[in-house]
Every structure is written in C-alpha cells, then in structure tokens.
Amino acid sequence: QVQLVESGGGLVQAGGSLRLSCAASGSIFSLNVMGWYRQAPGQQRELVAFITSGGSTNYAASVKGRFTISRDNAKNTVYLQMNSLKPEDTAVYYCNLHPYLRSYSAHENYWGKGTLVTVSS
User: Fold this and answer.
1) What pLDDT, on the 0 to 100 scale, is given for residue 8?
2) Which residue, 80, 115, 92, 100, is CA-closest to 6?
3) DSSP secondary-structure letter at 17?
4) Per-residue pLDDT reduced to its tens digit, 74-88
5) 44-81 burial, b for 16+ CB within 10 Å, e for fewer?
6) Is 107 helix (H, G, I), strand (E, B) or coil?
7) In whole angstroms, what is the distance from residue 107 CA to residue 15 CA?
8) What CA–CA distance (Å, rounded) separates 88 from 76?
9) Are 120 and 12 in contact (CB under 8 A)?
C-alpha cells in the first residue's frame, strides 16, 4: 500500500504563485511516475504534469511555461510550483503515483485526497 498526502493549496490572486507538495509513504515502487491531476467543478479530472523516477517530465499544454514539477526521491515527495496563476487554474489538485515501465492494475494506481487551489480574478 502507498499513501499520498498533498499540501500547499489555498486562495491566491490571479498572477500569484503557489507550491504544492505530495509526500508518498508505504511500499513505493522503485520505478514510478508521480504526477498532478486537477478537477474543476463539473469537469473531468485532467493531467497537469508528471515526472518519472528518472526525472523525465511532461506537462499539459495549458500549464506549460507556468508550472514546474519536481521531485525529491530521497523524501519520496513531488512538488508542483505554480506561477502566473489564472482563475481557470481553480480546481482540486490530486497527487498520483503508479509504476513506470511496466503494466499495472487499478490497485497499483494511487491517489491522494486532493488539495483545493482557488485563484481569484
């Protein structure tokens, strides 16, 4: 089992910054992908960014150039630095972890409980 705990959400004005953190604990796969997804009210959950245990990253087009994902493997923690925030970034942000470079089932796809980010105009 893996536990994911997010922190760092809150209320910020448009143009501001926030930094999200997600700490993983438990039986963590040595090769893994950690990522951030978000879900706005009435919308489907969408990928924001992910980073592999080797450091490769990928971003949604809507956040590229504004958000930066990073990780500290020694602390099993992933971060999301969010700059130039827009009202449309308002959502619950969820941390995700799953194995990398192999197939996996739903019970190996872990989610945090989410942290709310609200960007006011």
Assistant:
1) 97
2) 115
3) -
4) 999 999 999 999 999
5) eeeebbbbbbeeeeebeeebeeebbbebeeeebbbbbe
6) helix
7) 38
8) 29
9) yes
